[in-house]
């Protein structure tokens, strides 16, 4: 699971674990911690959307500007990564769908170097799918 950690800094954590693939859709288990709150949710994402997301993240790393969103195909859960100034990245979103019994909204700032971890995990998932 160490390879699936996007970032883990004190009261902020984001972990993406690949679970399984069905046709052209990959399902991930996404775990977050934001302050005293934490949650886990499955995200189903098409291969096409993952490739688009990787391209957007790569561009954001190169230009240190922009915004990209990872959306769950099966609910309204999402995570947005937005480049700020000085290499900081705003992370905000919702884990778990609004229709589910539990969901959590998150918002915090991370360092841009964590974006490379996301790309590695998603590329590895695509190659093994």
Strand content: over 45%
Mean pLDDT: 91
CATH class: Mainly Beta
CATH architecture descriptor text:
Roll
By CATH, the topology is Transcriptional Co-activator pc4, Chain A
**Total number of strands:** 8
Uncertain runs with pLDDT below 50, 5 residues or more? none
Oligomeric state of this protein: single chain
Describe this structure in words.
This protein is α+β, with helices and mostly antiparallel strands. It has one domain (2-128): Roll (Transcriptional Co-activator pc4, Chain A), CATH 2.30.31. Helix content is 25%, strand content 49%. It is built from two helices and eight strands; from the N terminus they run ββββαββββα. The chain has helices at 47-63, 114-128, and strands at 5-9, 12-22, 25-34, 37-46, 67-71, 78-83, 88-95, 104-111. The strands form two sheets. A four-stranded antiparallel sheet has the order 1-2-3-4. The protein has a four-stranded antiparallel sheet with strand order 5-6-7-8, covered by helices on one side. Strand 6 (78-83) and strand 7 form a beta hairpin. Helix 1 runs antiparallel to helix 2 (114-128). It is globular and about 40 Å long. The mean pLDDT is 91.
């Amino acid at each position: 699971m160490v390879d699936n950690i996007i970032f883990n800094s004190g009261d902020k954590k984001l972990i993406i674990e690949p679970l399984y693939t069905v046709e052209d859709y990959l399902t991930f288990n996404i775990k977050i911690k934001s302050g005293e709150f934490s949650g886990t949710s499955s995200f189903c994402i098409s291969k096409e959307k993952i490739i688009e997301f990787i391209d957007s993240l790569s561009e954001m790393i190169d230009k240190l500007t922009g915004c990209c969103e990872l959306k769950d195909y099966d609910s309204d859960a999402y995570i947005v990564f937005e480049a700020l100034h000085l290499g900081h990245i705003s992370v905000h979103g919702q884990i778990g769908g609004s229709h589910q019994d539990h969901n959590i909204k998150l918002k915090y700032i991370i360092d841009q170097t964590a974006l490379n971890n996301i790309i590695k995990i998603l590329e590895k998932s695509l190659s093994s799918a």
